[in-house]
User: Fold Putative Ser/Thr protein kinase from Sinobaca qinghaiensis.
Amino acid sequence: MNTYLALAESVRMINKGTHSILIDYDDTLEFIGKGRSAYVFKIEGTEVVLKVFFPDFAAVAKEEALIYQALGGLEYYPNLYEAGENYLVIDHVKGSTLFQCLQKGMPITENHLKEVDRALQLARNRGLNPSDIHLRNILITDAGDIKIIDVARYRQQKDCTQWDDLKNAFYVYYTRKHFPKKLPVVLLNTVAALYKRKMLPHYGGH
Ligand SMILES: Nc1ncnc2c1ncn2[C@@H]1O[C@H](COP(=O)(O)OP(=O)(O)O)[C@@H](O)[C@H]1O
Ligand SMILES: [Mg+2]
Assistant:
C-alpha cells in the first residue's frame, strides 16, 4: 500500500484566489468532502480519511494535528494517526453531517444536541475553546452517536457563538410541529451565507 505521504502527494489542485479546484488524486482515494481549508478522501480498504489542505493552509494542518492530539482518547472526536506538512490521517466517520441530515430529512433530536454539548465540554476540560461548530462539522454516525470534526480553531481566543445560535434555532424553529424536517440545500446554504454576513435578525449579530 502507498504511504500516507505518497497518497497526499498524489492530490493535485490549482488555486485561483480563494478558490481551489481539484485536478487529480490516487485511484485508491475516494473524494468525500471539501471545506474552507481542505479536501477530504476516504482511503479505499481502510477506515481512515486523508485530509489534504490547500497550499496556503499548511499552518492550519499543523494546528489541527496539535488539537487532535489534545483531544486524544475522547470518543466524540476522530483519532489522529498521522500528520504531515499539509495533511492529516484520521478516523473515517460513517454517518451524515447535520447539514446532510437536514437535507435528507433525517431527524435531529434534543439528545443529539446534548451529546454535542458534552463533547464540547470535554474539549473545554482539556483547556480548549471550541470554535467553528456548525452543521458541516458535526456528524451523526449510523449508530446514532455524535462525532465532531474540523477542530483546527479550538485554540482561538475569541468566543464563538455559532453553536449557541444553532441550538436556539433548533428550539425556536426545528422543534415546531409544522416546521419541515427536510430542507432544500439552496435554502440551507442561503441561511448559512446570511448568518455569516450577520444578516439574520437574531443571529450572528454579535
Ligand atoms: N473524518 C471524517 N469522516 C467523514 N467525513 C468527513 C471527515 N472529515 C471530513 N469529512 C467531510 O469533509 C468535509 C470537509 O472536512 P473538514 O474537516 O470540515 O474541512 P475544512 O477544515 O476545510 O472545513 C466535512 O464537512 C465532511 O463532510
Ligand atoms: Mg469544515
